[in-house]
Amino acid sequence: MKRCISLSIQWLEMESLKIWKKAKEILKSKAVPHEVFFTREKGHALRLTKEILSGTNQDTRVIAVG
Question: Structural domain of residue 56, as residue ranges?
């Protein structure tokens, strides 16, 4: 299964960056395969999701944060 995490840049600029860093370490320590994408502007998350899903035939989970 392919796992993708989409994060808003505005979200990362906030205090919540600490939460992402902790989550990233957990994913790494548990060897969870994943890709991370950062949005640049309004509507970018939707375009990223469409691109991710159209480029694979794997069962894919997209987690959007922010």
Answer: 2-65
